[in-house]
Amino acid sequence: MPHPPVHSPTILCTVDVVLLTLAVDGLQVALLARDRAPHAGALALPGGFVHPGEDAGTHGAAARMLREKAGLHSPYLEQLATFSGPDRDPRGWSVSVVYYALVPPMAQDVGATSAVEWHSVDRLPPLPFDHTEIVHQALARVRSKSQYSSLPVHLCGERFTLPQLKAVYEAVLGERVNQVSFRRRMDELGMLEPVVGELVGGAHRPAQVWRVKAAHRTGVSLSARVLGGER
Amino acid sequence: MPHPPVHSPTILCTVDVVLLTLAVDGLQVALLARDRAPHAGALALPGGFVHPGEDAGTHGAAARMLREKAGLHSPYLEQLATFSGPDRDPRGWSVSVVYYALVPPMAQDVGATSAVEWHSVDRLPPLPFDHTEIVHQALARVRSKSQYSSLPVHLCGERFTLPQLKAVYEAVLGERVNQVSFRRRMDELGMLEPVVGELVGGAHRPAQVWRVKAAHRTGVSLSARVLGGER
DNA sequence: CTAATAGTGTCTATAAGACAGTATACT
DNA sequence: AGTATACTGTCTTATAGACACTATTAG
Fold this sequence. Notes:
2 copies of one chain form a homodimer.
Chain A: E1 12-23, E2 26-33, E3 43-44, E4 47-49, H1 58-70, E5 76-85, E6 94-102, H2 107-110, E7 117-120, H3 131-148, E8 159-161, H4 162-173, H5 179-189, E9 192-199, E10 207-212
Parallel strand pairs in A: 1-6
Antiparallel strand pairs in A: 1-2, 1-4, 2-3, 2-7, 5-6, 8-10, 9-10
The structure holds a DNA duplex.
């Protein structure tokens, strides 16, 4: 069977980004009002076409989406999966390479000029295309990976206390984490270093401030075992 | 910044499949001599262009590659990742959605008319494009996932003994597996059922024959913990 | 001193691995 | 009976969780 022409004109190649952060009421996802058809005006994941002349790969395209649409640079940006089919986009047969990114809460304000709306992942509005399914898969990945890795540190600012980081883990995993196990785990991962300054916790014993060692800023550290929960 | 025309003509959209099986000397990957430029004649992963008119998605396209190029149907076919960039294919900016598949050794013969060559993953010939990197990532995924799931059962035929299955796990993981832990794990996963017939092991006590329960034929069962090895 | 949170020491529970024992076939 | 392999009982070891204790701050 002969192949179609090399430059197949009928496949749309796009990139979408599930940009997550953490607020007081849990994980939030960044949504943006679409500025063109289809679904003009509807809230959707930041995304767009891959620009072959501009992007070095889909990862670079995803980073560009974050820069152009949310006005920020995310140190953690990982491929989630690729979604495709004839019906997910009314314009035609489409392929969307989806990435997910985690940013600390403060990063929201950096791109304050952008039109990003943050929505709790527990109260998602209806989303166009297959974006609801995409967000659910991203959440599943983040929760699963948080069980055995340092992923959640990317939801913290540059400096944080262990009780703060523990609260972040609990917010992501949706369950309490054992304090002793947590501190043991963070020690074993060996990616945190104490900062000599301290931080008052309300009006009580102040907690040690930590930060991620330079070597671990962009990736994640993995553990062979799991903190709480089930896979 | 305006988007390019909807039907961007400059992105090649392809699918590649890392098809794995198990031989006496370990995991083997299916390679096929390319029948056209670029790299005509070179051994490469089975793959090809997505056909929008024919494929319901990239998963379907990968299944079609297996059918057309290897003459077989794989019950286990999962997305690995998507590879992209301007330089990986000399024809231009390309996106390849890569899947991996596991088949039992006998399945090789079903597609005997095909030109598939099986190569040990430990002695890969030089591969074109970024196929070497792709195979390595697929192996890493299979090995990692085998630690906490039933993935390797797809490398067995329909009926097998537990000692046989244990040997498959050991071949994939590249290390010995504790016998008691292994049997406990298989019991907990609860996806195997005994077949009343038995099977002679050389000239000694015969082993019980098992098969995967119907409900678990196509997917994998997951365990919260890990068998040997480190992540 | 009290209250409240940070951090640690230590016991318990659970699950994986080691090892040796029993079971069952063939020669 | 001998032997090789299948299978199991049970002890040991490793690690996560529970719980209580100490530490340090403000008021």
